[in-house]
Amino acid sequence: MKALAWIRTNLFATWVDAAITLACIWVVWRFVPPLLDWTIFKAAWLGDDRSACGAGGACWVFIRARFDQFMYGLYPSSQTWRIDLAGALLVVFGTWAGWRRLPGKRYAIPALLVVYPFIGLWLLLGGFGGLPYVETRQWGGLMLTVFMTVYSGIFAFPLGVLLALGRQSELPVIRTISVAFIEFWRGVPIIAVIFLASLLLPLILPINVDRLIRAVVGLTLVIAAYMAEAIRGGLQAVPKGQYEAAAAMGLGYWRATILIVLPQALRISLPALANEFIALSKNTTLVLIVSLFDLLGIVHAASADPKWVGYNVEGYVFAGTIFWFACFAMSRWSASLERRLGAARSH
Predict the structure, then answer these.
(1) What residues contact residue 217 under an 8 Å CB cut-off, 6+ apart?
(2) Please, what is the average pLDDT of the chain?
(3) How would you class 334 by CB atoms within 10 Å of its CB: exposed for 0-12, middle for 13-18, buried for 19 or more?
(4) 298 or 129, which is more confident?
(5) According to the model, what pLDDT value does residue 285 have?
(6) Per-residue pLDDT for 227 more than 50?
């Protein structure tokens, strides 16, 4: 009886609610059963080649056969443990920075932003310390997507903070340079930035720069401009009394900014910053134009293999699912961090 009362109250309370409920039921009945048939019930899960795939269902054998390539690209199979270790260390450093009950919190974020990039790069690139060198042209798949997202984000965040502070500076030169930088990179399409970075940096710099570094530099510049605007919104939301209180305590500009103003601004800007980070993870797919094969790019290349022609839909569904789970995890982590910071502020 309670169930019927709940249904009547929440789903059929008015004729409008009843119409919406019936429309939703029709959509679920119309589209979900065929989707389940294709993805699960009629799908081929076991086998070694396309002969194991039948008609009417997805061929997940394609994903099983190319799984290592989707994860590691062309990275030597005997060295993939280095990618796994770098990913595990990223989780450890991220957990240390995000879990307030762990000790040494004051060192966690500097360790994540400064120490981890060097350790991760050494593990992935090698060349010294007993690890064989692996060229970046062998990198690909999900590991390349994660690498570009993490490193572009790590470099873009401090640059975005400086640009946001520079845009509010009372010095006209600093303010003009910051505004020009932000407006320029925000106004150029990301795909054009990556392409220009790939072509122009070798002409400007006296040394040959790896194409992966060029792509990371392009992504960093664009995302830093977007992050700067998000942080500027947080700075403007901090009450003027906070600035005046810091000045009354005798704090200079930098100490007042770092200790009082910036933490509040970053807490306010957290949803927008998380949104930019999620957008960054998806924009890494654009590096395909400079012949870098991230997860989506290597799925596209694998589906062109004559052995697996016609199974590109399975590949794109797999890549889309990976991106969805990654973005959903970042969204949940951001929401959790917002709740904790909000609770800390209320105390």
Answers:
(1) 197, 201
(2) 86
(3) middle
(4) 298
(5) 86
(6) yes
Count how many Cα atoms sit within 13 Å of the Cα of residue 64 in the half-sphere of its side chain.
14
- Give the span between the Cα atoms of 23 and 70, in whole angstroms: 39
Q: Count Cβ atoms within 10 A of the Cβ of residue 147 and give its class: 0-12 exposed, 13-18 middle, 19 or more buried.
A: buried
For residue 226, which of 296, 152, 172 has the smallest C-alpha distance?
152
pLDDT recorded at residue 89:
92
Residue 140 token pair: 């690909």
Contacts of residue 104, Cβ cutoff 8 Å, sequence gap at least 6: 96
Question: % helix / strand / coil in the chain, to the nearest 5?
Answer: 80, 0, 20
At 344 the pLDDT is 53
Angle at 285 between CA 284 and CA 288, to 5 degrees: 110
Place of tokens 């060295």: 79
